[in-house]
Amino acid sequence: MKTYLKYLLFAVIASLPILFYVFNFNEHLTVANLKYYQCLLKEMVDQHQFLSIILFMLAYTASVVASLPLGGLFTLTGGFLFGVFPTVICVDISATAGAIGAFLLARYVFGEALHKKYPYYISKLSGELSQYGWSYMLSIRLNAAIPFFITNMIIGLTPLPLKTFIWTTAVGMIPSITLFAFAGSRLATIHTIGDIVTPHVLMAFGALALLPIFSMLARRWYRA
């Protein structure tokens, strides 16, 4: 890709999160507004269910590629509109597809510039991924405290194989997706995203994220 096209694409992608906050979209895309429009949304989905699912998945994928922090609200909405199991399937596919897009953008479009700007941090992360492999990547995905939309591009700057990135993303996101989808199916009891991501939930996900690391260390100890 020509240099000027790379810079143009970088400017477009980088401006989207900025515009998201400049125009206060974050103040409108809230649980309160979801509850306010729930009857209208439910009626639209009942009338056009297949189209609604397709548009939902496309919007989710685009938001991940653009690194917008909307995953929790999207999944909550899906749980309310489509039910838990369909939402887990749709969101897992969409989140993985969007993550692949962000990963490839970072690796093949923005990689050179970012490597020059943050060589130490990228080298350090690359070393940890080389040492721990898929266990490290899976633990990142299982840890709900680590922002999903940020890690996609960061991991794209490392030598991690794409296939490892894909399967660890698809598998590692299932617990948090299920949590938010279930919460969405009980929308009346939810007031903010903070009602879902409580300290106890974060502790549980943190413990879950340690399992791949412990498994890897146990295998190394056994072989030694």
Structure notes:
The chain is mostly helical and 224 residues long. The protein contains 13 helices and no strands. The protein has helices at 3-22, 25-28, 31-36, 38-47, 49-65, 71-82, 84-117, 119-132, 134-142, 148-156, 162-172, 174-185, 199-223. Helix 6 packs across helix 12, helix 7 packs across helix 10 and helix 7 packs across helix 11 (162-172). The N and C termini lie far apart (47 Å).
Number of strands: 0
Provide mean pLDDT, rounded. Answer: 80
Low-confidence stretches: none
**Percentage beta strand:** under 5%
Structural class: mainly alpha
Rough outline: globular
Order of helices and strands: HHHHHHHHHHHHH
How many helical stretches?
13
N- to C-terminal separation? 47 Å
Largest sheet: none
Taking Cα atoms only, what radius of gyration do you get, to the nearest Å? 19 Å
Helix content: over 70%
Break the fold down into its secondary structure elements and pairings.
Blueprint (H helix, E strand, L loop, with lengths): L2 H20 L2 H4 L2 H6 L1 H10 L1 H17 L5 H12 L1 H34 L1 H14 L1 H9 L5 H9 L5 H11 L1 H12 L13 H25 L1
Helix pairs in contact: 4-5, 5-6, 5-7, 6-7, 6-12, 7-10, 7-11, 7-12, 9-11, 9-13
Q: Can you describe this structure in just a few lines?
A:
This protein has 13 helices and no strands.
